[in-house]
Amino acid sequence: MRRIHNSPLIQGILTPLGQIAIFILGSGAVLSAFMLLMAVIFSNSPANLMCLDKNGISLMEYTLRNLPQVLTDGVTLGFVYAAIALGYTMVYGVLEFINFAHSEIFALGAFVGVETLIVLQNSGKLAAASTLGAYGWMVLAILAGMAAAGATAVLVERVAYRPLRGAPRLVPFISAIGVSFFLQDAIRLVESLTTGQFHRIIPSFANFDQRIPIMRSSLGGVPFSLDLEVKSLWVVAAAVLMLVGLNYLVNTTKIGKAIRSVAQSRDSASLMGINVNLIISLTFLIGGSLGGAAGVLYALKFTRIDPYVGFFPGLKAFTAAVMGGIGNITGAMLGGMVLGMLETFAGAYLSVYTMGAFGAEYKDILAFAILILMLIFRPAGLLGEQVAQKA
């Protein structure tokens, strides 16, 4: 029985898939129950009357009608945050160091992927491609973003972090901030020399913008529907593949065992014959590649990018990593799911329940409020850190 439980299939694939399902169902159920409870509490409030005047339905009906779509959008956004958070988690798990340049590596991957698609569009390949061929070009763009972001992450580690490995914690932290600004300006410089534009729009092709009707039903006389965009399905599928693949790599392969050994004790790992510098470089390569893929997925979902596109998603992904437990791959999944759903729920319902006093733009404040609360009441995160020594 123990052998079956410890098999690579169970430990590396089925277990993380089960965890993802539990996180989605649990987060969705808790937030849905909370919103329905709020609808009951506010049923006799001025907010309910305003909702009736503006939308022609009560708060309860408004909440029920939008709930399936809000849950779906929250899951999609949560996977984006979880994919970005994996880069923070990988580096912190090995070096106990927050790579704040990861958000710019994410942006670099987004730009490389989008520029690849723009080149394909200008050459006529996107217009001439079938749906399956268009999907192949999207995979190529994701791989290009991964390659560029991963190579950049390795270069950054070699130039800016490795010489400071024995320095006090504050020194590499300042170096990471400097690398972040450098990469931002490098992206601006390259874009100004090559295209003259700082804002890039991902080409519209194939059926990525198509909405697929999933469900049409009613509950208590309240009709509700659920539509899914093809690009949202792409984001979720790619993010799940990355999460499961990383979990399999770290927990079931020899490379993963070496990574975990270096994370536990670099000196002991070196004595056992493990090339510590190589493993650390490999960790940055994996984390950077995942960040680059997340950047292309972000561009696919939100269409428009600029050299500063990584700032807010990076901070929110860091919040997700801290929320789940920094250095914990499973925690990155949980933190991303919770944060994505909280933001989506706030964007959909906050304005209605506060009678317009707080609009959807206040959902960004929610991420940083959660970060502050987590650092105060549970600094180790929901699932706890997974490092050799607590920072």
Helix percent reads: over 70%
Rg result: 22 Å
The general outline is globular
How many DSSP helices? 15
Strands ordered across the widest β-sheet: 1-4
Output the CATH class name.
Mainly Alpha
| Broad structural category | mainly alpha
Q: Can you tell me the residue ranges where pLDDT is under 50 for at least 5 consecutive residues?
A: 387-391
The helix/strand order is HHHHHHHHEEEHHHHEHHH
CATH topology type: ABC transporter involved in vitamin B12 uptake, BtuC
Second CATH tier, the architecture: Orthogonal Bundle
What is the number of strand segments?
A: 4
Mean pLDDT: 83
Give the topology.
Blueprint: H1 2-5, H2 8-41, H3 46-55, H4 59-95, H5 102-122, H6 125-128, H7 131-161, H8 170-194, E1 200-201, E2 211-219, E3 222-229, H9 230-252, H10 254-264, H11 266-271, H12 276-302, E4 304-305, H13 311-324, H14 329-353, H15 363-377
Antiparallel strand pairs: 1-4, 2-3
Helix pairs in contact: 2-4, 2-9, 2-14, 4-9, 4-12, 4-13, 4-14, 5-7, 5-8, 5-12, 5-13, 7-12, 9-10, 9-12, 10-12, 13-14, 13-15, 14-15
